[in-house]
Write a structure and sequence with these properties.
It is built from seven helices and no strands. α1 packs antiparallel against α2. It is rod-shaped and about 90 Å long. With 188 residues, the protein is mainly α. It starts with a helix and ends in an 8-residue tail after the last helix. It has a single domain, classed as Up-down Bundle (de novo design (two linked rop proteins)). 78% of the residues lie in helices and 0% in strands.
Amino acid sequence: MDTKIIIFVSILIILFFGMMIGIYNSLVVLKNRVKNAYAQIEVQLKRRHDLIPNLIETVKGYMHHEAEIFKSITEARAKAMQISKDAKVQSSNEKTLSSALTSLFAVCENYPDLKASQNFLALQEELVSTENKIGFARQFYNDSVMQYQTKKEIFPNNIFCLIFNFKDYSMFEVTNSNERNVVEVNLG
């Protein structure tokens, strides 16, 4: 065989394997970014879960007739603390907890002494801050999932992903159609 053909074929083989290594490595980087983004959500959720008992203890001193709200928050928190690697399951559990907390804050409006309590105000501010961090972490996670999924679906990556069994990740999505509606504010 001619030496030029052997060199040409060798270069093609090297380029092919170089391209495959590049595809594999970029998919691994994106997959790890998705895992890290989800771990950041878990960190913020743990922070939120740790704040809730303090909030309940602060509020209990003022509210003597609201046992059902405390029970629903405690149950929702317990369920949400069972961290799931499935974003849809975790999102559902967290929405239940958010709904229970919303009920608590709505009832708090009936207790002016509680609303003036420095402990309550500080905890409420911490929860608001944590909710914002959770929102940013979810957005970063969804962006990471989108980049990963896009990379997976592009040809020839999609064939490569089948061979090496790169799995799909689900995004955090709004599943309740009422949450998609625009909130109307009436100041008059």
